[in-house]
Amino acid sequence: MPPSEAAIPIEDHPRRRCDAKAALRVEALGRRAGLDEPARSDASRAIVAALLALPWRSGLTFAAYLPIRDEVDLTAAIAALDSRGHAVVLPAVIGPGLAFRRYRPGDALVVGAFGTRFPAADAAELPPDVVLLPLAAFDRAGGRIGYGGGFYDRAVARLRADGVRPCLIGAAFSVQEVNSIPLEPHDVPLDLVATERGLVRSASWDTIRPCVCCS
Question: Which residues contact 66 (CB under 8 A, 6 or more apart)?
Fold first, then answer.
């Protein structure tokens, strides 16, 4: 490595940030994959319980997801939120972006890129008040590493450009936590991370909480 490059801190060097994030992604996903099915199921239930215990305002729109591979399973949360009168949308991968399409348990789904499942194109699109995101890794400052495609970063940027500031909540197993994530300019920090060990609140949580919670 040239001396001039070696002297640049990782947070100020785009390529080194990208390389560091890629390494953290591989390590965290490896730990997630190492959980056996009973452990994942138990942890998913605890995460769902933690999310549902928050004092949500009535009539919110939640963006959730149906799990692929070994992600946190939010299926029970989707059913509970729907039964409580909240609207639920699922992200549909459309080219380089996401469309948030209205979903109710039992609705027909199509299979898209990466094995994702979401409503067909005739489903209504709604801007979410709360986005429940999958992730590869997280830290306690709200840093998130996704799967490298940037889909959620672009989707959130588009929502904010339209005047919508959703509450961003990561759903993760505690083994996916890392000490620190070197964020890039396009990365969107999380307000909260829900794990089976409890909620990890970032500095922005106190600001966004009154918009989505009653107390």
Answer: 74, 75, 78, 90, 109, 116, 117, 118
Residue with tokens 């919110």: 60
State both tokens at 168: 């961003």
CA atoms of 118 and 49, how far apart (whole Å): 23
CB atoms under 10 Å from CB of 34, counted, come to: 10
Q: What is the pLDDT of residues 168-201, one digit of tens each?
A: 999 999 999 999 998 887 788 999 999 999 999 9
pTM of the model: 0.90
Kindly list the distances between the CA atom of residue 179 and the CA atoms of 11, 21, 154, 201, in Å, as whole numbers in the listed order: 14, 12, 25, 15
- Residue 86: which of 112, 110, 105 has the closest Cα? 105
pLDDT single digits (tens) 11-35? 455 567 788 899 999 999 999 999 9
Distance between CA atoms of 210 and 215, rounded to whole angstroms? 7
CA atoms within 13 A on the CB side of 128: 27
User: What is the rounded distance in angstroms from the CA atom of residue 187 to the CA atom of residue 94?
Assistant: 20
Q: Do the strands 117-118 and 110-111 form a parallel or antiparallel pair, or are they unpaired?
A: antiparallel
- Distance from the first to the final alpha carbon of the chain: 52
Alpha-carbon gap, residue 177 to 140, rounded angstroms:
8
